[in-house]
Design brief:
heterodimer; A: mainly alpha; 14 helices; B: 11 helices; elongated
């Protein structure tokens, strides 16, 4: 697998992303994951955190949006290869001239971008239904953080999807993996509340650095050094994830061809 | 006498087979992930969120609320899939083709989930004791056990109604997930009902779990069984109302689907 393919086949990436979004916008489970669940989490968090800080509402908007991003990554991007297998289209996708990783990258890009709706939904909820006047401390830095977060999430998703295909015993834990990342990445409360031994685990999670950058630039008025460090960590983890994903895709496709199990469910 | 024995047999067979069919995929590791570790993580998340919001001295409020709320995992998802799964498995035609007593057939779908759901709540309380500092020293444990069973029954009542909805809509996953998360807000598991707007409090009062969670909190704070019996009676009543509504919807779906030839439509 060569990731320069993603740049060479950028047109295919965009078409796959467009088709994926059109396809998924009528799926009840996906609409729940990217819109309804984050809005319900935001509602709950707004009731719970409303008296904690001056800019708590914006903290909740960003945090609940991140829960939507992670849930989408886990359940939708995580199954982005498996779903083709279930639909019987995996063999065709693997067999066509466009590299398979380009297709999966496009799908993951669509998933992550559409999950930004979760943040928009939470924003509308907080401002319209709860009447908060929301403001952002560092809007420009927030936008850059958002772009880097999307890249980090897409890259992370590329490692999860082939793992779920090759190791079904790992996928059995899929439902149980949703809340641990909400906790360890500090989406809605600081990880300082957690036992100290969990901190290194948080540091290994790209969603944690996304939360540091997005919360820092939206509500915490974080020093630029902290934001830059979080951006750097997201880029480092993205590179590592892309490298791991390249190996995983190679192994997965080789194994599928040798064992002839591409469409075996 | 023969009719009663026959109905009991149908009830038990429906109970057992629907549960086995639903969990045909089940392996110990899947059960561990879905019913033991998953609920623990949900409890941890909301307990940390709650203590961040209101202080660590209030942790017990969130631990109890979320432990009892685990009943909805079996009550909503399990029961719904047991009823709605007949349609997806293509067995609804055979089910409605039999002369079996519909009430036995219908309520039998929930029985195992009451046991499984109550066990889930007990496991959640065990997590609370082991990891989250839950203090049961002043608790009337048999009364807490009764509360758990009653709350699970009432949640399964709502599940039976949801299961019938799954016979008339293809988006059952969407509906189930939404109801499960709405219960997290409206049941008082994570937010004191007194701070909710009036319309939300009114909605809470007609939902299962609300009184069950309140009863569990009262018992753990040292209340006696006499104090929570009215709450439990209301909780049970609400569950039965939902179950009966589900039963009537089930009957209507049968008649309507037979008339319109849509039994196998998915």
């Amino acid at each position: 697998m060569k990731f320069k393919n993603i740049f060479i086949h950028w047109r295919a990436v965009l078409i796959v992303a467009e088709v994926t979004i059109k396809h998924q916008m009528i799926d009840g489970f996906i609409l729940f994951t990217i819109i309804v669940q984050p809005i319900l989490v935001a509602t709950l968090a707004l009731f719970m955190l409303k008296d904690t800080a001056q800019n708590a509402a914006m903290f909740v908007v960003v945090g609940s949006g991140l829960t939507g991003l992670w849930s989408s990554l886990l359940f939708i991007s995580g199954n982005s290869i498996n779903v083709e297998r279930w639909q019987g289209t995996l063999e065709t996708l693997v067999g066509m001239p466009t590299p398979f990783e380009v297709v999966v990258f496009g799908k993951n890009l669509a998933n992550v971008i559409q999950s930004l709706l979760s943040m928009t939904g939470a924003y509308l909820l907080a401002s319209i239904f709860f009447g908060y006047s929301l403001y952002m401390d560092q809007p420009l830095l927030f936008v850059i953080s958002l772009f880097l977060s999307v890249f980090a999430f897409v890259s992370f998703g590329l490692t999860i999807a082939p793992i779920f295909v090759m190791y079904r015993e790992v996928q059995q834990w899929q439902n149980a993996m949703e809340f641990p990342v909400y906790i360890l990445a500090g989406f809605l409360f600081p990880i300082l509340l957690l036992p100290g031994w969990t901190t290194p685990i948080s540091y290994l999670l790209p969603p944690y650095w996304a939360a540091v950058a997005l919360h820092g630039t939206s509500t915490a008025n974080a020093p630029i050094q902290q934001t830059l460090f979080a951006w750097g960590m997201m880029l480092v983890f993205s590179m590592i994830d892309l490298f791991i994903a390249s190996r995983l895709f190679k192994v997965m496709l080789h194994k599928a061809r040798v064992d002839a199990v591409l469409d075996v469910q | 006498m023969k009719t009663i024995a026959s109905n009991l047999r149908i009830f038990w067979q429906g109970t057992l087979l629907s549960y086995i069919a639903l969990f045909g995929w089940l392996r110990p590791v899947t059960y561990l992930a879905t019913k033991i570790i998953g609920p623990l993580m949900q409890m941890l998340f909301f307990t940390f969120l709650g203590t961040f919001a209101t202080g660590s001295e209030n942790a017990q409020f969130y631990v109890i609320g979320n432990a009892v709320q685990i009943a909805a995992l079996s009550g909503i998802y399990g029961v719904t899939m047991s009823v709605g799964g007949e349609r997806w498995a293509g067995t609804l035609v055979y089910l409605f083709g039999t002369p079996a007593n519909r009430m036995m057939m219908f309520f039998g779908r929930a029985f195992m989930h009451i046991i499984d759901g109550a066990l889930g709540v007990v496991i959640a309380f065990a997590w609370g004791l082991l990891l989250l500092g839950l203090d049961l020293s002043r608790t009337n444990l048999p009364a807490l056990g009764l509360t758990i069973i009653v709350t699970t029954i009432s949640t399964c009542g709502l599940g039976l109604l949801m299961g019938c909805l799954s016979l008339v809509t293809a988006n059952v996953g969407f509906v189930n997930n939404t109801v499960y998360f709405l219960l997290l807000i409206f049941s008082g598991a994570n937010v004191k009902l007194s701070i909710l707007p009036a319309w939300m409090q009114a909605t809470s009062s007609v939902l299962p779990l609300t009184r069950g969670i309140a009863s569990a909190r009262a018992l753990i704070a040292g209340a006696g069984i006499q104090e929570i019996l009215p709450l439990l009676a209301q909780e049970l009543g609400i569950g039965l109302v939902y179950g009966l509504l589900g039963y009537f919807l089930f009957k209507w779906v049968e008649v309507s689907a037979k008339q319109r030839g849509t039994l196998e439509t998915i």
